[in-house]
């Protein structure tokens, strides 16, 4: 990008902050790239002839008479089949030692797909993780985040989803990854032999934090190429959106903008929506599904980042440690897929919804029994059975390390119900009990 013939060169800065420079310039557009004293920058604000540029690597060492050369265009990505199996930085440049990409250059961060060209999502995306597929089934074209505390193995879960999901392409957008995380993803994809269907854009902790702001746009530009041009089913994995929002905060604070809730910029909602609204089901079977990680501060879902995310997305997947089973599970109470009814019982077995509802209700009864136990009340026989069931339910169906098909999940649930409960206690329709209740197990 930076080797384009420079248009319009200026040599007088009017202001310098820790992350931005300002100058008077004409004919400059928002998001346009520039080079300031040899450092890449992007226009983040224009007011009359006053232009503010965010310098990705910081403004240290930039003098007031620095040369500013505008490149005349926003960031771009060269798209093509050559993207497959490659790792890139926030500027779309290879970081895996491979050759540069040759292909059509496309502007990143463009508008979402016209709503008129969208259709209602109806294709199932199985992940092999029972806590998702059984209770919070994903649908192509959906946008949904993982809410997780920073010490949860969310990157492991993202890698598992990438390796198991039945899609044509996986686009990974890694923001603020440690080098260990980057190498983990790379090793997982290479050793599984699926590198040819994965494209990765990575910003590590060693890179300037502000560069994270480009990662989602790069990832979604690649996703739109494969979904719109190639009619493929694309899954975009973004981790970690909290670090993305922190980078937004860094820029807005250094521009002396008045912060909103939790020190976040007032534009947080629209900044997040611009990313998540790229999720789409197209009429010709192409689709973009977005799964993102939002790390929480001490489980606080009222913080501005998860709070705004919840308004934009179609549910959430909540990771938590389960003390009874010792497993990390997808919490059945706090997780929700608002589109699951579009595929449950339609693209899956007819007993799916009944099994899901029974499993969560019985698990809730176990939590009530646990509360009684903690408060010193006597437990009934049913309470004891619920507690035993809950531990096995968490281990065999809610745990993130379970990797089975949806039919196997349903069959596992039937066996658990038959082991611990009577037919009447499950509350499942008689027709399904007649057909699926295990005999002699």
Task: Write up what this structure looks like.
By secondary structure, the protein is an alpha/beta fold. The protein folds into three domains: 7-70, Elongation Factor Tu (Ef-tu), domain 3; 76-342, Rossmann fold; 352-436, no CATH class. 32% of the residues lie in helices and 23% in strands. Strands 9, 13, 14, 15, 16, 17, 18, 19, 20 and 21 form a ten-stranded mixed sheet that branches. It has a seven-stranded antiparallel sheet with strand order 1-7-4-5-6-3-2, with no helix packed on it. β4 (33-36) and β5 form a beta hairpin.
Summarize the main sheet. 10 strands, mixed
What fraction, in percent, of the residue positions are helical?
25-40%
Overall mean pLDDT: 90
Cα end-to-end separation: 65 Å
Number of helices: 12
* CATH fold-level topology of the largest domain: Rossmann fold
User: What is the domain total for the residues?
Assistant: 3
The rounded Rg comes to 25 Å
Shape: elongated
Number of strands: 21
* Class derived from helix and strand content: alpha/beta
CATH architecture of the largest domain: 3-Layer(aba) Sandwich
- Which residues form runs of ≥5 with pLDDT under 50? 1-6
CATH class of the largest domain: Alpha Beta
Classify the beta-strand content into a percent band. 15-25%
């Amino acid at each position: 990008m930076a080797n384009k013939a420079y248009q319009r060169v200026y040599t007088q800065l009017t202001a310098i902050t820790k992350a931005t420079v300002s100058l008077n310039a004409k004919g400059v557009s928002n998001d346009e790239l520039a080079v300031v004293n040899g450092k890449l920058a992007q226009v983040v604000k224009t007011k009359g002839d006053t232009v503010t540029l965010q310098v990705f690597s910081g403004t240290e060492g930039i003098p007031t008479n620095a040369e500013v050369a505008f490149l005349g265009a926003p960031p771009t990505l060269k798209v093509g089949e050559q993207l497959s199996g490659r790792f890139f930085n926030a500027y779309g440049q290879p970081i895996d030692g491979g050759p540069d990409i040759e292909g059509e250059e496309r502007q990143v961060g463009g508008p979402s797909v016209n709503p008129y060209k969208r259709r209602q999502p109806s294709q199932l995306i199985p992940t092999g993780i029972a806590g998702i597929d059984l209770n919070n089934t994903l649908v192509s074209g959906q946008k949904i985040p993982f809410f997780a505390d920073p010490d949860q193995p969310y990157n492991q879960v993202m890698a598992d989803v990438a390796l198991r999901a039945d899609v044509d392409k996986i686009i990974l957008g890694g923001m603020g990854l440690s080098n260990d995380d980057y190498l983990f993803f790379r090793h997982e994809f290479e050793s599984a032999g699926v590198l040819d269907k994965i494209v990765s854009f990575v910003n590590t902790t060693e890179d300037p934090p502000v560069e994270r702001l480009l990662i989602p746009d790069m990832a979604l530009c690649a996703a739109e190429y494969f979904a719109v041009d190639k009619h493929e089913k694309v899954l975009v994995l973004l981790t970690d959106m909290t670090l993305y929002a922190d980078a937004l905060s860094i820029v807005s604070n250094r521009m002396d903008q008045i912060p909103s809730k939790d020190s976040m910029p007032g534009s947080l909602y629209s900044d997040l929506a611009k990313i998540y609204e790229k999720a789409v089901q197209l009429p010709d079977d192409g689709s973009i599904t977005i799964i993102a990680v939002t790390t929480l501060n001490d489980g606080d879902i009222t913080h501005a980042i998860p709070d705004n995310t919840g308004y934009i997305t179609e549910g959430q997947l909540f990771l938590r440690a389960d003390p009874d089973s010792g497993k990390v599970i997808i919490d059945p109470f706090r997780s929700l897929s608002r589109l699951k009814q579009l595929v449950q019982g339609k693209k899956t077995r007819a007993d799916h919804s009944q099994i899901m509802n029974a499993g969560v209700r019985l698990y809730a009864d176990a939590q009530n029994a646990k509360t009684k136990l903690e408060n010193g009340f006597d437990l009934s026989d049913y309470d004891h059975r619920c507690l035993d069931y809950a531990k096995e339910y968490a281990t065999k169906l809610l745990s993130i390390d379970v990797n089975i098909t949806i039919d196997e999940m349903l069959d596992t649930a039937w066996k658990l119900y038959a082991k611990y409960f009577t037919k009447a206690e499950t509350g499942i329709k008689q027709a399904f009990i007649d057909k699926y209740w295990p005999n002699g197990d």
